[in-house]
Structures are given as C-alpha cells and as structure tokens.
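Hi again,

Forgot to attach this to my earlier email, sorry! This is the prediction with flavin-adenine dinucleotide bound. I've pasted everything inline since the attachment limit keeps bouncing my files.
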Amino acid sequence: METANIVILGAGVVGLAVAAKLSERNEAVYVFEKNKRFGQETSSHNSGVIHSGIHYPKDSLKAKLCVKGNSMLYEICEKYRIPYKKLGKLTVAIEEEEMEELDKLMKMGKDNGVEGLKFLDREEVKTLEPNVEVEKALYSPSTGIVEPDELMNHFCAQIRNNKAIVATETEVADIRKTNLGYELSGISVGEKFTINAKTVINCAGLYSDKIAAMIGLDIDKLGYRLHYCKGDYFRVAGKPPVKMLIYPVPKGAGLGIHLTPDLSGAVRLGPNAYYVNNIDYNVESNEKEFREDVRRFLPSIEKNDIQIDSAGIRPKLQGPEDSFRDFVIKHEADKDLLGFVNLIGIESPGLTAAPAIGDFVSEIYENEIKR
Ligand SMILES: Cc1cc2nc3c(=O)[nH]c(=O)nc-3n(C[C@H](O)[C@H](O)[C@H](O)COP(=O)(O)OP(=O)(O)OC[C@H]3O[C@@H](n4cnc5c(N)ncnc54)[C@H](O)[C@@H]3O)c2cc1C
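Structure tokens for the complex follow:
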C-alpha cells in the first residue's frame, strides 16, 4: 500500500494554498479532489473580492487571517502576475440606523488593523461614483478583486514545482485511524484505492463536516455541523454603473446584495443569502428582490438592466438563528487524533484568507505534528 506523508482533502483555494505551503518543506504531500478539476465548488462560485477585514470581530481567525491574507494576496498577484485590481470599496448608508452600523464597521476595521479607512459624505461619494445616491459611506482602499481560477492555478504550479501531487477524480469515502496515522480509501479515476498517511488535513469545504464525522468525531457535540447558505448573483447588462465595489451595511447571514465589478469592468449584483438543504448551484431568486435592494443606493438601475448569472453556497457553521461563528482550524490531538487537522466553516473571507490559512496550518504542522 502507498504511504503519504501528508494528505490534504479538497483542491479548493484553501486546500491548494495549504498544500503549496506545506510542500515547500515536506515530501510526499498529496491533495485529493473528488471533481475532475480543482476549484469547481465554492472557490469558483464567489465574488472574487479581496476583503479588507472590516466585518469580523477583533482577534477572530476571520479577522486575523483576512487582514494578513489581504496583503499576502496583493504581493502574490504582483510577484506572479495574477490579474487583480485594487478598486477600493464603499460601504454605504442611507437610513439613520445604517450610519450606526457604519460606525461599528469603522471601529472593527480599526481594531483589526485595516489601514486607510475613512468616512465620505454624499458629495464625496458622488465625485467617486456619480450614480450612487447615499448619505454617507465608509471607504476602504485595500479592498480589491482577483480572478480565483488564476490564483488557484498559481498554487497548483507551486505544488507541482515542490514535487507534490494534486490527484483529481479521487474521492475519499472512508478514513480509519491506524498505529502509524490514518488509512484513507475511496475511488480514484474509477478504481478503488487505499493509502496510508501520517497527517490528514481536512479542507473539504461544504463536505468538511462529513469528513470530520468519517473519522468518528461527533460533529453535533463539537459544533462542526455545517449549514448551507446559498447566494445568487445577477449581472448588470450594458454600461457598468459603478467602478468600485459598493456594499450596503451587512444584515442577516450575508454581507447584503452588493455591486462587484469583475476584472473586465462588468458588474455583478449579489449574493443574497438564504439557507438550503442541498448543494445545487441553480439560481433560485428572482430579479425583483435584487433590483429593489440595489435601487436604494443605485436609483438608475432598471428591470431590463439585470440578467441571471450564477450561485454559490456558503459552508456556514452559523445556523439561521445563530450569532457570529469563527473559522474552525483545529489539530484534533486532544481527541486522540494526532496529525488530523480540521478546517470547517471556511466561508467568506476564505478566498482572501487562503494564503494566510496556508501559513497558519503550516505552523500547526511544524510545531505540533512533524516528527
Ligand atoms: C456566494 C459566495 C461568495 C463569496 N465571496 C467571497 C469573496 O468575495 N471573497 C472571499 O474572500 N471569500 C468569498 N467567499 C468564500 C470563499 O469562496 C470560500 O471561503 C473558499 O472558496 C473556500 O475554499 P475551500 O477550498 O475551503 O472550499 P471549496 O472550494 O469548496 O473546496 C473544497 C473541495 O473539497 C472537495 N472535496 C469534498 N469532499 C471530498 C472528498 N470526500 N474527497 C475528495 N475531495 C473532496 C470538493 O470537491 C471541493 O473541490 C464566498 C463564498 C460564497 C459561497
């Protein structure tokens, strides 16, 4: 039977970033991915925003890894010529209570070390974005956009350079603890396989709670069970109405329906947020909800301007009635699972945080697992 040093489950942006980092200093690193290609799930169904870090409570992993990931991503994009744009973002307020929310975001951003934040009044917003009608906005200059597929391609190239392997069409269906580590089995390109691994890193996104259950963890008791929270997108046809990222103040499970230009300048609306039971990427919302939400700050938007686009599903630890939940990134040594690391609930800002998550998991590996 083959033996691996480290097996990473899932070739989304997080699994790939973790593998790229771990394979710099370690041999026999494998990434197993059930789909035919890397990055076909959440990592290619998102807004592609490089977040600044204003949305997460101080000292949370989301805050720390987002702020660190933001500057790492810009450096990576510059160094390896990955397409990106540092467009800047306006979070906008129209009603009185939204102004209070803006104050909270400003405080959280400052607590998290986000630089360059400032408030803009109606006229200052109009100078930057003539079509946007609001009372006040929080400007964050370090927010930008990146092409997620190009970023994942870059991590794959690093993995190949480090002589590690990304095995696609390889689905892990069972994991057993052994004296030496873990025995993983499943189907690879239509054939059954079994492999031993000293270390297993669970980066399986929407399926990461199922992987944790596979090794015998009680996901309900540990609070690891995921809730699927879907977000649909629509596209603005014709001339782009804005140049920057424009967000309302967040409410509910998502960040609110926002306007995100892509690298070509075309603008998407969304995502909204609603809980679902199954993983299915069809758009279920109608255009009206989107138009009405966005009309509050972009009155010029018309019915014919909006076309159906795509959907993504957030792997959320936070259920519909729950308050903030942080990323779980945990070496399960205290549960008699030495060398088993779970990454669960890696929703937004997981794309931004990916390179910082790579460093974080590598530190856990070097300090607690490597022997
Ligand atoms: C609507 C939406 C918008 C978002 N917008 C942003 C944004 O603008 N900025 C930002 O920073 N973040 C954003 N995010 C979050 C970001 O997209 C995710 O945090 C990130 O993509 C998660 O990556 P991942 O590698 O953990 O998961 P995934 O990309 O889902 O990868 C997990 C992989 O594991 C594989 N897998 C699962 N089970 C198995 C198995 N048994 N065997 C083998 N392989 C398996 C899957 O096939 C999958 O490819 C958004 C998310 C959503 C849903």
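The pocket of flavin-adenine dinucleotide is lined by residues 9-15, 32-35, 40-43, 45-49, 51, 171-172, 203-207, 231, 271, 312-314, 346-352 (CB under 6 Å). DSSP finds eight helices and 20 strands in the chain.

That should be everything now.

G.
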